[in-house]
Design goal:
alpha+beta; two-stranded antiparallel sheet; 104 residues; 29% strand
Length: 104
């Protein structure tokens, strides 16, 4: 998961910065950017913009800037057969699983 978090942190940074612009914030207006095992990208507001102050946001508030869509194994086993009734699962009991989706 460490490598996954590091990869998402690098790839999500441009998305996060564009979201900051929407909130009238700059990169130096935030701190403590963290990516967790859910592959969520959180940051803490250091200097809220006027727009955010009007909405009640204050220094120290935390924001979720990015979240990867991650399905549970049960969700995948339920949803994939709806579209691909002919599939195979490759599960090594590790943190990731593979599905071979076959056209019928």
């Amino acid at each position: 998961m460490k490598k996954v978090r590091e990869t998402y942190a690098r790839q999500a940074m441009p998305l996060g910065v564009s979201k900051l612009n929407l909130l009238d914030l700059k990169l130096d207006d935030i701190k403590d950017i963290k990516v967790n095992d859910k592959v969520e990208d959180w940051f803490t507001i250091k200097h809220p913009s006027e727009l955010l102050i009007k909405k009640g946001v204050k220094s120290g508030d935390k924001f979720l800037a990015f979240r990867s869509l991650r399905y549970t194994m049960d969700e995948l086993k339920k949803e994939i057969p709806r579209v691909f009734p002919n599939y195979s699962i490759f599960d090594t009991e590790g943190p990731f699983v593979g599905f071979l989706l076959k056209k019928t």
